[in-house]
Amino acid sequence: MSTDGCSVWSIVNKDFSNGGCLAQDPSNSNVVYAGASDYNSTTGQYSMVVLKTTNGGVTWPTRSFPASGDYGTSCQAIAVAAGNPSIVYAGGEKNREPAIFRSADAGRTWQDITSNLAVALSRYETVHAIWISPYDADAVVIGTSRGIFKCTVEGRDRTRTWYATGITDMTSDFTYDRATGTIYAATYRGVYNSQDEGTTWQQENDGLGFLETLCIDIDHQNRFLYIGTNGGSMWRLKLPDASGYEYFAVVDDFETYTDYDQGGEAIWQTWIDGFDVPNNGSQIGYLLPPYAEQTIVHGGAQSMPYFYDNDFKYSEATMTLDSPRDWTMYDVRSLSLWFYGDPANAVEPMYVAIANSRQTPAVIYHDDPVAIRTSDWTQWSIDLSAFADQGVDLTDIDKLSIGFGDKHNPQAGGSGLMFFDDINLYRPPEEAN
To answer: Can you tell me the mean pLDDT for 107-131?
Structure first.
């Protein structure tokens, strides 16, 4: 470990050996995961083992075993989700075939999510690197012996499918430029970058050629990309000025919902409305398919229809968040959503509420009482400090609600129909150096 910019290094644990990879919890620098291979002389089995320290590496008391198998079973890549650090991914080999696992409880238990990856790759090929979107813990990109793959998650059972991105060079490491939202990959033929979370890639080899790169990282303050190559040389690339970038995280763009309610994919199965709640007059989606609105949309192909009825009721619909849950990451400052109303709508106060399981929700009302009669797409931006001032912990948001009226003091009121789209978290543009 080094605490002075790598001038001096010290050993923090002499007993730890046979390690293959490290990953630090982005929210707590004392929490570090280490991946390795473990051999049990009694059973004759090798295991993919993940060790965990909570004191900066002084001790490693926690061990978990995502997989066991024959020779070659090992953990060669670990990553921790920035938006929800309870989610950890571990990749490598099991029985000399590629394998990747996901933990939703900070490494205590593991789920095998290898799925079709074992078919896409050959025997003896492995997972070398993992990148997780800071804004969506299910948006995962991996580097393998045969290039870069990206994961899609579909359906209520969260079925994961891996697809090739077109990069077929062995990929050993990733780093992320949070200022511009760019992923950089170290590969057998140099460096690639992606500005769409790993869907497409371009080479970044100006002056480098096609040197095999093994490791990669960014100096965010001074805007340099550093790489280490096979052979021991180190190179750096000056990154472009980050001023003017206004990066955002998608909370819900309403594009993934379908009419397959048997599979839990309908919009009203994520946004829980007032169905069977006598004093909650909200209804999300249409009664018959298509459940989502497909004509009045702000972006993409769908928006959320929201019917409200506030005759001595309130109306509220709530979404439980998996990620992003840390609403302070990468200096995001505001919550933005787009709404579309109707001049015939009954005037009711419109609000947004956020909360986590340990705290009272923080509620912000729109400052225009007749905003819901606006028959055009209108953006509503809320400074996150307004929620924090009400005592909500912005590092662990698990519920987002949209409502009308006064939940605690329902009054005589009316009804209407609203549409919502493109709920995002925004960070202000980087200032010029």
So the answer is: 93
